[in-house]
Backbone:
């Protein structure tokens, strides 16, 4: 949810085409992932949350006030930090032997997050 909101702000506000492209990829990946997770949770009778954590709330508030390279820099470095954190979380869950549907979802997200983290690291070299 936070990745979607922050990436939407950057996709709409950045002037750097490579940052916009990355934000649009994150936006598409995480929108699809949220839909998939909600579907799996519904099938399993589990609840999902639509609440942003404090870190994402602060990031979104910051991004709304920034422009230019400041916007791009804050976004890309936050993506490195937050994608790394999400990757660690998915690795922990993957090792626990989840229910089949969640296990497949977790494996797919590990791949997506790894690719996004690599791309964010590459883009961060400009900043």
Residues:
């Amino acid at each position: 949810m936070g990745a979607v909101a922050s990436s939407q702000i950057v996709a709409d506000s950045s002037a750097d085409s490579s940052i916009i492209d990355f934000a649009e990829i994150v936006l598409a990946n995480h929108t699809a992932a949220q839909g998939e997770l909600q579907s799996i949770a519904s099938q399993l009778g589990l609840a999902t949350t639509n609440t942003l954590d404090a870190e994402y709330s602060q990031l979104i508030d910051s991004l709304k006030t920034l422009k230019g390279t400041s916007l791009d820099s804050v976004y890309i470095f936050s993506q490195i930090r937050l994608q790394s954190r999400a990757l660690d979380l998915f690795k922990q869950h993957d090792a626990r032997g989840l229910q089949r549907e969640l296990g497949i979802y977790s494996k797919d997200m590990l791949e997506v997050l790894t690719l996004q983290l690599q791309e964010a690291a590459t883009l961060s070299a400009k900043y």
Q: What stands out?
A: The CA atoms of residues 15 and 68 lie 7 Å apart.
